[in-house]
Amino acid sequence: MKGWQFRVGTWNVDSLTGRSGEVVEALSDRKVDVACIQETRWKGSGAKGQRYKLFWMGVEERSDGIGIFVAEKWVDSVVSVERHSKRVLRLRMVLDNGLLNVLTVYAPHSGKS
Q1: Maximum distance among all alpha carbons in the chain?
Q2: Per-residue pLDDT tens over the stretch 7-49
Q3: N or C, which terminus of the chain has less Cβ within 10 Å?
Q4: Opening angle at CA 13, ends 10 and 77, nearest 5
Q5: CATH code where residue 43 lies
Q6: What pLDDT does residue 7 have?
Q7: Separation of alpha carbons 6 and 110, rounded Å
Q8: C-alpha pair distances (Å), 8 with each of 5, 59, 60, 89, 103
Q9: How confident is the model at residue 111 (pLDDT cuts 50, 70, 90)?
Q10: Looking at the 3D structure of the chain, how many domains does it have?
């Protein structure tokens, strides 16, 4: 892995609805390769995107939810996505000869179950 850089970030976005383009622009401007996000407030689960691919897990009531954005140049390195719950998601990537586990875990603030 010598000779290249890899940037990881995290962000509580407080809803991706209508803001995913803004988030992608911010990640791109900061040259972030992988970003863990919390409070997507999206339903269901899936993966989509172009410059950044978002793997997400949400709930029916459009609260909470998590996801991981992966820059396009690293998407082919993703070997698995494990959605453990609406608050835990693990993404595995093969980088050179190593395996990178990226976890996003959302622990809500006080007053929420």
Answers
A1: 46
A2: 999 998 888 888 889 999 999 999 999 999 998 888 888 899 8
A3: C
A4: 45
A5: 3.60.10.10
A6: 94
A7: 33
A8: 10, 25, 29, 15, 11
A9: low
A10: 1
User: How many degrees, rounded to 5, is the angle at CA 113 between CA 23 and CA 34?
Assistant: 25
**What strands, in cross-sheet order, belong to the sheet with 98-105?**
78-85, 88-95, 98-105
Q: Where are the beta strands (DSSP E) in 27-87?
A: 34-38, 45-48, 52-57, 66-71, 78-85
d(CA 61, CA 44): 10
Q: Which domain holds residue 15?
A: 8-103
- Domain assignment of residue 110, yes or no: no
Burial of 87 (0-12, 13-18, 19+ CB in 10 A): middle
Give a yes or no: residue 109 inside a domain. no
Is 58 a domain residue? yes
In a domain, 50, yes or no: yes
**Which pLDDT belongs to residue 60?**
73
26, 69 Cβ separation under 8 angstroms: no
